[in-house]
Design a protein that fits this description.
Bound molecules: iron/sulfur cluster
Distance between the termini: 17 Å
Strand content: 15-25%
Shape: globular
Number of helices: 15
Oligomer: single chain
Structural class: alpha/beta
Radius of gyration: 23 Å
Helix content: 25-40%
Length: about 450
């Protein structure tokens, strides 16, 4: 075994080396990924973050159901790639995660999701905000939001996610908050979840100069006809070309663009064409990244329509589409960060808050009319925040999943737990990232 990336210092310190017991029968740890790049077998430990090249015997040992100790496997055992048959992998992962959470220090909030409005000019049938009251953040509230962010960030740099609805339906809130943060000397960057149909040259310039936007996430549902049918814009017949042109302009201005392909039974047939269209138009463009997402209660929608739903089949198609996107240079595998994961999303992150259009504070952007933990006027209600911490502290049971120490999905996430489809996609993407990590390391040698 030849180490390419050492264990993280934190996991090396916490776990040390696993003792070797010559009388023990071993098996591959659930948090060990084995794959091949070219002719080379590699193993990645998602708990310790060690990446290693393997010889053939070591690769065989990790593929076997069980292995009896042999001196050749000593490094695999010491590095927690092989663990005793009866080892509790989940307990070990949980211990490391708990330590990482407790090591988190600081009272400042640094990540804010701000709902500028709950209104939207699109009417996607799958939008989870359908049926909720439409309202814009008023200018007074925007000023209070800025004051709150100044107080809560305690002099630290902040990142803001402009959210909605369609955040560009209320640019005034973004202007007020950004100007106030600048005036108060708060360093900030922002990203935006937008359909991008409302951008024009002046707004793109403002995004760069005033809102300090360095990233946008734009959802595409298909090629022109499918896209326009699903988006069902209230203010235009077609938004497809406008959005593609705005993607180009955003990239030209140095704003990174993540394109999220929302996939379900209703549009899967169109996704290959869309991927190829995007690759023809944007392939090789710096700052562009495409990924696909399986609509989370696709089966429920499908049962209302005529589409047969098999989430697992959809998941397999999604991975194929992503593979094509990667080959054509518009998808970059997710980075495997050299840190211990300790949270899943903003709901269980200690430094993140969500601010509604009314100035209420919540932890999860799915719940904007309940589960408040404070408001921008009176600040955080510590008792309610503690309740929220408890609610979002429980993870779903993920025994045996190689992604577990990274994924950490919450039991209380309203988008549901994990099923075979989700697990398949997560594991496939993880393997893709491992291969990419190794290939990049090899290039640098
Ligand atoms: S992919 Fe699913 S099973 Fe695996 S860690 Fe994430 S939530 Fe758990
Ligand atoms: S709990 Fe689920 S819906 Fe809420 S912020 Fe986290 S991932 Fe999003």
């Amino acid at each position: 075994m030849k180490t390419v990336f050492e264990k993280l210092p934190a996991t090396a310190f916490l776990l040390g080396e696993q003792p070797v017991d010559k009388a023990t029968v071993y098996r591959r740890a659930s948090f060990c990924v084995v794959t091949k790049v070219g002719d080379t077998y590699i193993a990645y430990n998602t708990l310790t973050k060690e990446l290693a090249e393997l010889d053939l015997r070591e690769a065989d040992a990790l593929e076997a159901e069980s292995v009896i100790f042999s001196p050749e496997y000593e490094q695999l055992i010491r590095g927690y790639f092989l663990v005793p048959q009866n080892h509790d992998d989940k307990k070990l992962c949980d211990g490391v995660t708990v330590f990482a959470r407790s090591a988190y220090r600081g009272s400042a909030y640094r990540r804010f999701t701000v709902f500028t409005t709950t209104d939207c000019n699109a009417r996607c049938f799958y939008c989870y905000e359908r049926g909720i009251k439409h309202m814009d953040m008023c200018d007074d509230t925007a000023r209070r939001v800025a004051d709150f962010i100044v107080r809560a960030s305690e002099g630290e740099a902040v990142s803001i996610t402009w959210y909605g609805g369609e955040p560009l339906m209320n640019t005034s809130a973004m202007d007020i908050i950004s100007s106030a943060l600048s005036a108060a000397g708060v360093e900030y960057t922002s990203m935006m979840a937008t359909n991008a149909s409302l951008f024009d040259d002046a707004l793109i310039k403002k995004a760069v100069d005033l809102w300090h936007t360095d990233r946008v996430q734009i959802t595409l549902d298909g090629t022109r006809e499918v896209y326009d049918r699903i988006k069902a814009y209230s203010d235009r017949e077609s938004g497809f070309e406008m959005v593609l042109s705005n993607i180009q302009k955003l990239l030209d201005c140095g704003i990174k663009v993540n394109i999220r392909l929302n996939v379900g039974g209703h549009n899967i047939a169109d996704m290959h064409a869309l991927t190829n269209l995007l690759a023809d138009r944007f392939g090789g463009r710096r700052g562009l990244n495409v990924y696909a997402a399986l609509l989370f209660d696709e089966c429920e929608w499908a049962s209302r329509g005529s589409t047969d739903c098999d989430r697992y089949e959809l998941a397999k198609e999604i991975i194929k589409i992503e593979d094509i996107a990667a080959e054509r240079g518009i998808l970059h595998p997710k980075k495997l960060y050299r840190t211990v994961s300790h949270c899943f999303c903003k709901a269980d992150a200690e430094d993140a808050l969500v601010i509604t259009a009314e100035g209420k504070i919540v932890k999860c952007d799915f719940f904007t009319d309940s589960r408040f933990v404070g408001d921008v006027e009176s600040g955080i209600d510590e008792e309610k925040l503690q309740d929220s911490r408890l609610l979002y502290s429980r993870r779903i049971e993920c025994g045996g999943c190689m992604a577990y120490p990274i994924c950490l999905r919450l039991a209380a996430c309203p988008t549901g737990g994990c099923d075979d489809a989700r697990k398949f996609m997560t594991e496939e993407r993880l393997v893709r990232s491992v291969r990419y990590l190794y290939a990049s390391a090899r290039e640098k040698r």
